[in-house]
Amino acid sequence: MSSRRLFRLLQTAANIRNKQDIVFDVSSCSLILIAVASLVSGLSSGVLAAEFRIPSDDQAQYTVEIPDIWKPEATEEGVDVTSPDGSTYIAIEAIDASSPNAVLAEVRSYLARESVILSENTKAEAKAVLAGRDGTRITWNAKEDGEPTFVSLWYIPPENNKILYVLYWGPTSSSAANSQVISSIFKSLK
What we know:
By secondary structure, the protein is of the alpha+beta class. About 35% of the residues lie in helices and about 35% in strands. The strands form two sheets. Strands 3, 4, 5, 6, 7, 8, 9 and 10 form an eight-stranded antiparallel β-sheet that branches. It starts with a helix and ends with a helix.
């Protein structure tokens, strides 16, 4: 919120108070100032989000909200996102594929190009819900540049010959710090 818009909002509140002879005591004013300060600090701390269509064309089947501070970048298939510190990467895409095996092959190839080495003996698969639909989640421990890394792939069965998937990875050390934002991104996927 710009300072000009905030000033107008406060000015409007003052005008209403004057016209209606509303009397504010000190504690009421303090509460109003605390609420405004919370709003302003919340907006400046990355609460603002942009909505992205998945895929980005006119055939979009899904939407997701990404906090602006997370450096989102629209792609043909959806959106790529990087955490503010550059440690965590998320791809949310709907791709032409007839089976989950095609998605898995593409993800493995992509991770190999990014020098992410999956530890196959740590692979775990479970049922999961993504965008309100039943799907699958696969996780691996991995290494990226020698650093312990966590990789997670979520996907749902094909719909209209497209499979929605979410891939994210990042250092194990930063997964706790980013978990709340990642969770909010997943929850916003519809």
